[in-house]
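wait is this the right file?? whatever heres the structure
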């Protein structure tokens, strides 16, 4: 239970940090700031970033699971 609580808090912290960073970097531009696929820490964030057209969540038994741009995936 403690591990899942820590993971949930980490996800919330990452979402908050991304929201703050997007607000600072978005002055004078319409829409959302661009997010690099490799900056996304979870599969849900990766898939939600572009519906699979921009980022792809890749799973591996040998390496850490990561979010990649569609061209690299």
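ok assuming it is, sequence goes like this
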């Amino acid at each position: 239970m403690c591990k899942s609580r820590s993971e949930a808090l980490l996800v919330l912290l990452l979402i908050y940090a991304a929201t703050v960073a997007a607000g600072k970097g978005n002055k004078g531009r319409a829409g959302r700031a661009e997010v690099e696929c490799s900056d996304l820490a979870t599969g849900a964030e990766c898939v939600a970033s572009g519906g699979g057209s921009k980022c792809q969540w890749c799973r591996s038994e040998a390496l850490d699971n990561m979010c990649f741009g569609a061209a690299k995936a």
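Residues 2-27+36-69 form one domain. so i think its the right one actually
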